[in-house]
Amino acid sequence: MQEALAEIAVITEAGWGIGKALALALVRRGIAVAGIGREPFQAEGIHAITADVREPAEVARAFSEIRAQLGTPTILINNAETYPDRDILDETPASFMDTVQLNLGGAFNCCHEVLPAMVESGSGRIINVVTFADVSPAPLAAGYAVSKGALRILTRALVADLGDRFPGIVINDWIPGTHQPRKGIPDGVDPAEAAEWGATLALLRRPDLTGRVFLRDREHLPPVSLKGRVRDRVLGRRPQRIRL
Question: How far apart are CA 163 and CA 28, in angstroms?
């Protein structure tokens, strides 16, 4: 892990679950952390701010407070999401777009707040917490699957626009795995364990990491065609995954 100097991290949905665990993991590593939550919360060592990331004005207010109290953010982890169990026949335009506005719009709103300073300094760290829900959408999860898939596209769009010009702004997707107590799954990943992986990833500043996807504690490599696998075997090449 690279040494962190004057890092200031912002984590959305930091009042519970993996967001809170991530915030605490970074605090233990000496990072100043601001946590944004839709409901008021308290956690030792975290500068807690109540704001709805769906609302650009509230996000602007929250980041103004962060800059005044802690300084300019250098790390952003977009963790806020909602997962309503709702049949597509029960969705309304308003309910569907509300999910999209939180899961996708909230991430964009926060990126919009941190990017000007990151561009000016030529460095920064953005991690979007995503899933593979869009690959094979589950029943009762249309809004979630669509919005989380769109968030993965937002990551790629950020890389497309910024990667070449600002290699010091390192951008990744991270899939921590289904974690407790999410949706009552008893054997999910312990948030504290996942948070250690996420904290390690957040402090990696290697420009060559930009655009890579991380699943739990290691890099997730894209599928390789049969022809590609044969070629790699003939050439003696073995993909090297980055471990956190």
Answer: 30
pTM for the full model? 0.91
Residue 11 DSSP SS3: strand
Residue type, 203: L
DSSP-assigned states of every residue in 31-97: -EEEEEESS----TTEEEEE--TT-HHHHHHHHHHHHHHT-S--EEEE-------B-GGG--HHHHH
Nearest to 139 by CA among 83, 87, 84: 87
Fold of 8-235: Rossmann fold (3.40.50)
pLDDT in tens, the chain (244 residues): 444 448 999 999 999 999 999 999 999 999 999 999 999 999 999 999 999 999 999 999 999 999 999 999 999 999 999 999 999 999 999 999 999 999 999 999 999 999 999 999 999 999 999 999 999 999 999 999 999 999 999 999 999 999 999 999 999 999 998 755 455 455 678 899 999 999 999 999 999 999 999 999 999 997 766 665 556 666 676 767 899 9
Distance CA 217, CA 204 (A): 13
Pairing of strands 46-50, 169-175: unpaired
211 neighbors 169 (Cβ within 8 angstroms): no
Contacts 24+ apart (CB under 8 A), 81-85: 81/13, 81/129, 81/144, 81/148, 82/144, 83/141, 83/144, 83/182, 83/183, 84/143, 84/144, 85/140, 85/141
Secondary structure class of 29 (helix, strand, coil): coil
Q: Using CA of residue 115, residue 118, residue 123, residue 128, what is the dihedral sign?
A: negative
